[in-house]
Amino acid sequence: MLDKNEIRKHLIAHSASGLAGSAYCRRENLNMSTFRNWYNRREEYLASPAVEKLPFIRVSLPANDPTAGEMPPVLEVRLGNSATLRIPAEIDAARLGAILRTLKRSRVLG
Hints:
This protein has helices spanning 4-17, 21-28, 32-40, 42-46, 93-105, and strands at 74-79, 83-88. It is mainly alpha-helical and 110 residues long. β1 and β2 form a beta hairpin.
């Protein structure tokens, strides 16, 4: 019996494969009836997992150009091609762990 995450991976892989359900099941050695059940409930399996709620952190930006002076050490997390998250190097491990877990759950990080 597969868990919800494994079923989700199969549904995503099937969609990306371009194969008919029966061909995908043959290739992956899955029972067609079971796969059809997953497919019919795909909205449930593909729904985004709940995102951990973190406290709001107020951010102050310097009045001058931040790229003009020396920047403090930061950890950069690239979020695909769309954005970069810059985290102060002095962040505590618990907070950093919470941020990374939230990003992973929201499928921003693989």
